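Regression test attached.
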Amino acid sequence: MTAPLLEIRDLKVHFNLPRQSLLGPRRVLRAVDGVNLTLHEGECLSIVGESGCGKSTTALTVMGLQEPTSGEVLYKGKPLNGPGAPSRKQRARIAQMVFQDPYASLNPRQTIGSTLLSQLKLHGLASGSEAQDRVAAMLKRVGLQPDHARRFPHEFSGGQRQRIGIARALMLDPQILVLDEPVSALDVSIQAQIINLLMDLQETLRLSYIMISHDLSVVEHVSDRVAVMYFGHVVEEGDWHSVFTRPTHPYTRRLIGSVPDAEAILTGARGVPDGVAIPSGRSFSPDISIRRDPGQSSEPSALVPVGSDHRVRLAI
Amino acid sequence: MSQFLPDPVLSVRNLRLGIGKRYEILHGISFDILPGETYGLVGESGSGKSVTGLAIMGLLKRPLSVTGGTIHFQDRDLLKMHPRERRQLRGDRIAMVFQEPMTALNPLVTIGRQIAEMFVIHRGMGWPEARRKAVEALESVRVPAPEERAHAYPHQLSGGMRQRVMIAIALACRPDLLIADEPTTALDVTVQAGVLELMAELCRAEGTAVLLVSHDLGVIANMCQRVGVMDQGRLVEEQDTRNIFTNPLHPYTRGLLAARPRLGSRTPGQRSRLIELDEVVNAKDRGRDMPTLITPRGPQLAPETRA
């Protein structure tokens, strides 16, 4: 196996909370508490979990938008944080982000053209008519017209805005795209178009994706590997097929079981596929389904392999 | 069989609404909701499903207004009612649950008081008695420690808890009709399942009819007996829930069903494109009425009589 493109090692992000009383104990929110993930070239790794599980914080750390408390993020073996880390400008050419709400992430007073051009200028990559040509080519690539460059964000529909968000992220030819709920703000009819576009782009540009989503049907459709996060820990990870056909961790099973699937409900064929038998003599800690206080310190068990590319954590 | 059917709780006929007469948003939609029935309205954003709910509640904001048609609630035309009468009905006989509980709840008032308000206004109770009823209402929506939670402000609750409070307020006066506009869209899937189940259970117990507005076909299948599909301001198809999934008739419905990524539909070793709506639906079929597909008072016209 080739060296991973991106490696997250024992990542911890803790936030200090205000004391509840003057002499009360210092409280810490352990948003991400020891996460290890790897992303290979051309792969789509999805992180799923409910709000507050730390999936977005993990992604922000990859983007350099959140300083980790400890642990490291390695890009092709070199650390992205700490001393000797690349500058923000260098980072911008490694990884870019596509946000959930494209309208909130585009400047309403700038035309699409100038939003896209400014990156090329800032990085000194192209200027004049060459830059214009690159903007036009990018708009075409994401399924828009070159003359859309003269328009403002409010002149586009939701689906078109997400195309612009993708174009913006791709202007500097990054290798990694972090997709934060890329289709959850869109209508069902538009979702399919954006998912198809993302899959096409991944193939033609050899991109690697880290996708954050709570929509499991989208995750299943697009991902190569899936990591399920729960209260700051990865509780199950592996190849998409093993995770979806043999979900083993109780939380993963609950997550898959709560997706309202029309046909399954109507045919009564509702049920979660059987999980993998975990090594004998071990079991899941019984309190796993009870909401824990995320501020509480914990001694998680190691991830136990249950398949060729499928690991599960017994206790957090 | 028609004589066995009860009179509908809500009967919308040829409802038109828009900005003045020139810009029409709903082009005449008709449907009925029977007592105790859960009726789903699906469609994408801009199809008019939410404004339909607001029109029934009488909460349309200028410049939007109803320009034609009737809305009968228990044989009284809501549109001909005096605003005062309508206000009395609203919250008492017809209640609504909104998508975003944080914006629908008053951030400066404790949730106990917001629930108690319903009893004071609509039942003429005194505050102390209303407060006791509010705690009972919180208990019925399974908010843990209702006694203490009654003193909490909305921001102190999680999203799922806030939506439970919304449901408690809406069902406080045991309404005959509940309008739920995307009630669980802002919630996590695991929380969503619990809230939907609770809503279904409480409405079933009281025989409350529900108009459920949603874009999520899974939620609709889970909750509704009948479904109306809306596209571009028209109700394009209406069927029993089971039929809409097994035998969709309108091209738009077929497209909508085909475009969904579905759990368990991917085959190992490959990654195929999703079907896009535009690839299956002709532009000319969008928002097109197909009169044969709409059967107001749906269950009266069972499939065999319609065919």
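Expected vs. actual: identical. The domain at 1-93+225-259+272-307 of chain B is CATH 3.40.50.300 (Rossmann fold).
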